[in-house]
Write a structure and sequence with these properties.
The protein has 2 domains: 50 residues; 54 residues, SH3 type barrels (Roll), CATH 2.30.30. It is built from 2 helices and 5 strands, in the order αβββββα. The protein has a 5-stranded antiparallel beta sheet with strand order 4-3-2-1-5, with no helix packed on it.
Length: 125
């Protein structure tokens, strides 16, 4: 009877030891991938919830503007881009450039070059 119990115990330990690497891999995946992703999502959601009128923002499309209105019921915001008012969903905001400071759109700058290719000189190339 004792030998049967010993055999069952050793088989059970062998089975547990066989599954131990899979358990370790799953734990490693959680701490290396899933947990940081949840932290980043929480940080992004906090940023979106903290947006208010006057914040300078950048959309996921690269559009710079100042928040004119925040609609929490529809999860939309209205952005003032040099006098042009555009409506976006909150999740379309990539980052808040300045928080709480009413910055004119002219002071935000653009990514457009100051001259065209026709105006460039050989020294610039």
């Amino acid at each position: 009877m004792k030998s049967d119990l010993k055999e069952e115990w050793s088989e059970m330990m062998e089975l547990i030891l066989n599954f131990l690497p899979f358990i370790a891999i799953m734990a490693l995946m959680y701490f290396m991938m899933i947990r940081p992703q949840k932290k980043a999502a929480t940080k992004t959601q906090d940023m979106l919830n903290a947006m208010k009128k006057g914040d300078a923002i950048v959309t996921i499309g690269g559009l710079h503007g100042v928040i004119d209105e925040v609609n929490t019921t529809n999860n939309t915001i209205v952005i003032d881009c040099d006098g042009i008012f555009l409506t976006f969903e909150k999740k379309a905001i990539a980052r808040v450039v300045t928080s709480g400071v009413s910055t004119p759109v002219e002071d935000l700058g653009t990514n457009t070059p100051t001259h065209t290719l026709d105006e460039t000189t050989d020294e610039e190339l």
